[in-house]
Design goal:
Elements (H helix, E strand, L loop, with lengths): L11 H7 L9 E8 L5 E3 L7 E4 L3 H11 L3 E7 L16 H12 L4 E6 L13 E2 L2 E2 L1 H18 L3 E4 L6 H11 L6 E8 L6 H7 L19 H13 L3 E5 L5 H10 L4 E5 L1 H12 L5 H15 L3 E4 L2 H10 L1
The structure holds ligand PBG.
Length: 322
């Protein structure tokens, strides 16, 4: 007898009854890029429809985010000055710290996550303190903890270290606790691969390394078991949420993280994923809406509980239309 799988695809009612995964705007986190200066809303050339915002214009984007019903943002800062040790990154009046205070003023409910890293702030563009040409792991830990505490002081709900130094979660957890921020959560970029998909972001954040690459700290794209090792270590050290990044080419990693852990999993659909789809859509090669929703759904299906995406606002609108 023929087994008839098509019965359950007969019409949209039965299809929705058997649907295993759905997208919701509750799943999305939107990245915001903040800059010093006044009256700036400047489109990021590598990330169509995403902007650099000065603090006095932030209200526009924050109210749009809230109106659309997006619950979380991740804040990236571009400082005016960079130096060897990235000192603007832990300055109480640094760009992210000021932006967090401003966003808290504008919205009491929006959940604020901050990216904790040094690459936007160091003159050499590496994610930590250098010793010669090497990124010094333990010297960097102290700075990362300082950054995390300064973000927490400004009002961040969650800090998200993206540097890939060893031991940073434990170091940061202790520093946050000692400074009275027991309730500030940590989302670890636990399995962050050394990926060419970050290209457009580095243009957006002016954070490209000035020499060498990030292969001594970010993970080798050839490895998957190593991701579980990194994830386990970070959970052990106190990470509340772990992230897999990039998302699209690493769905297998998301899936195995889901199967092997019990903390929530965040997928970061990175700038290169966004840029590829945008370019293909502009060339009329694909239907942008369908492709984006399919991609985001694939991340959910793989096991992501939440997704950081430059498409968050657009996708929230598209979901309503479906
Ligand atoms: C900072 C950081 C990067 C991204 C997020 N945080 C760049 C990098 O590691 O080079 C990339 C995000 C994206 O491509 O969308 N370390």
């Amino acid at each position: 007898m023929i087994k008839r799988g098509r019965r359950l695809r007969e019409n949209s009612s039965i299809r929705s009854l058997v649907r295993e995964n759905t997208l919701s705007k509750n799943d999305f986190i939107f990245p915001i890029f903040v800059v010093e200066g006044e009256n700036i809303k400047e489109e990021i050339s590598s990330l169509d429809g995403n902007y650099h915002w000065s603090l006095d214009r932030l209200e526009e984007i924050i109210s749009e985010i809230e109106t659309l019903g997006i619950r979380g943002v991740i804040v990236f800062g571009l400082p005016n000055v960079k130096d060897e040790c990235g000192s603007e990154s832990y300055n109480h009046n640094g760009i992210v710290q000021k932006a967090v205070r401003k966003i808290k003023e504008l919205s009491k409910d929006l959940y604020i996550i901050t990216d904790v890293c040094m690459c936007q702030y160091t003159s050499h563009g590496h994610c930590g303190i250098l010793n010669g040409t090497k990124v010094d792991n333990d010297a960097t830990l102290e700075k990362l903890a300082e950054i995390a505490v300064s973000h927490a002081k400004a009002g961040a709900d969650m800090v998200a270290p993206s540097d890939m130094m060893d031991g940073r979660i434990l170091y940061m957890r202790n520093a946050l606790d000692e400074n009275g921020f027991k309730d500030v959560a940590i989302m670890s970029y636990a399995a962050k691969y050394c990926s060419a998909f970050y290209g457009p972001f580095r243009e957006a954040a002016h954070s490209a390394p000035q020499f060498g690459d990030r292969k001594t700290y970010q993970m080798d794209p050839a490895n998957s078991r190593e991701a579980l090792k990194e994830i386990d270590m970070d959970i052990e050290e106190g990470a509340d949420i772990i992230m897999v990044k990039p998302a699209l080419s690493y769905l297998d990693i998301i899936k195995s993280a889901k199967e092997n852990t019990s903390v929530p999993i965040c997928a970061y659909s990175v700038s290169g994923e966004f840029a590829m789809v945008k370019a293909a859509a502009k060339a009329n090669l694909i239907n942008e809406k369908s492709v984006v929703l399919e991609m985001l759904l694939s991340m959910k299906r793989a096991g992501a509980d939440m997704i950081i995406t430059y498409y968050a606002l657009q996708a929230a609108k598209w979901i309503e239309e479906v």
